[in-house]
Design goal:
This protein is an alpha+beta fold. The chain has two domains: 5-72 and 233-317, no CATH class; 82-171 and 195-224, no CATH class. Helix content is 43%, strand content 15%. Strand 3 and strand 4 form a beta hairpin. Helix 1 runs antiparallel to helix 14, helix 3 crosses helix 14 (276-294) and helix 8 runs antiparallel to helix 10 (196-207). The radius of gyration is 23 Å and the shape is elongated.
Length: 322
């Protein structure tokens, strides 16, 4: 990966070096510019607008700089009950593959008489087959039907909804951390003890008056161990990063001043003729500036479901729950 540029947003110094290398900038000049921005706008300026100021100052043509060889360091927390055999065999799997292949989690569920049919949107618990559906309160478009739905409690619909969202709305995607300290990452949810998906199934079991013990039993198998899986991922493999650069619905007015400089107009924007590299590069600048000013950029991301990450790309660290 000698020709690739890796943005490691977990490390402020590495982030600044990657920013300067990618855009061919002098590090000292960039840092002087950012200090001046803090003097003018305070310690935490709006990095969306500072990104454009930086691009203008250093004459960066955002739409012309290729991002295909830009990688972002990602971290994923997981628990293993097979000493990593499945991880070595399959690499990092999305949830659909985890539930369909010979993995420890799939084996664990089958021992508990729980089986998913992802394509048919079904889950079998013991001898009961259930439909996986999303309760949108739009009964006309629901595959279950209002008469059937009325048989289910709100708690049941909520539990099924969580499972459906993870598998279908979120496309079974692998969730990763893109920024944050080790302490912040390890205290996120309960993923150092058991998968969130087991917690969701336990919620469903509770509504069916069945023992909700999956999470605790899985945790006991781990012997207080969990794993941090770190890897460098092509930024194009993350779920549509351009949408991460603003907190509101994008509008031409947000980008107008800079797009004008590049020769684009509102029709180009509305017709989606702006090169994707334009948005990817804004993300790289904005996230780098967030790390520079506050020490924290975008914290989470999702890997596109079709992307395969082999074990050879992973750096695996075993840790203990303190």
């Amino acid at each position: 990966m000698t020709n690739n540029i890796v943005f490691n947003f977990f490390d402020g110094d590495k982030t600044m070096l990657a920013l300067c290398r990618h855009f061919n900038l002098d590090k000292s000049s960039v840092e002087r510019f950012l200090v001046q921005e803090m003097i003018m706008h305070g310690k935490n300026p709006n990095t969306f607008y500072v990104s454009f100021d930086l691009a203008k100052e250093f004459k960066i043509l955002l739409g012309n700089i290729d991002t295909k060889k830009v990688f972002i360091t990602a971290k994923h927390l997981t628990t293993l009950s097979d000493e990593g055999s499945a991880l070595k065999k399959y690499g990092l799997l999305n949830l659909k593959d985890v539930l369909e292949k010979d993995t420890p989690l799939n084996q664990f569920l089958q021992v508990k008489n729980i089986k998913f049919n992802i394509d048919k949107k079904k889950i079998r618990i013991h001898e009961t087959e259930l439909d996986l559906f999303r309760c949108t309160n739009d009964c006309k478009s629901c595959s279950i039907g209002k008469s059937n739905c009325s048989q289910f409690s709100p708690e049941y619909r909520s539990a099924i909804d969580r499972i459906y969202i993870k598998l279908y709305t979120d496309k079974s995607e692998i969730e990763v951390f893109l920024c944050g300290t080790d302490d912040e990452i390890e205290k996120y949810s309960y993923i150092t003890r058991y998968p969130e998906f087991l917690y969701n199934i336990d919620k469903l079991l509770t509504t069916m008056q069945l023992p909700a013990i999956l999470s605790n039993e899985w945790a006991k198998l781990q012997d207080n161990q969990f794993y941090v899986v770190e890897f460098d991922l092509c930024m194009h493999f993350l779920e549509y990063i351009p949408s991460c650069i603003y907190d509101e619905k994008p509008s031409y007015e947000l980008f107008e001043n800079y797009l004008d400089l590049l020769g684009y107009n509102e029709d180009d924007f509305l017709s989606e003729r702006i090169p994707n590299d334009f948005y990817y590069n804004i993300f790289l600048i904005k996230n780098s500036l967030d790390v520079f000013f506050t020490g924290k950029g975008k914290e989470y991301g999702q890997i596109l479901p079709e992307i395969k990450i082999p074990f050879s790309d992973l750096r695996v660290i075993r840790k203990s729950i303190l």
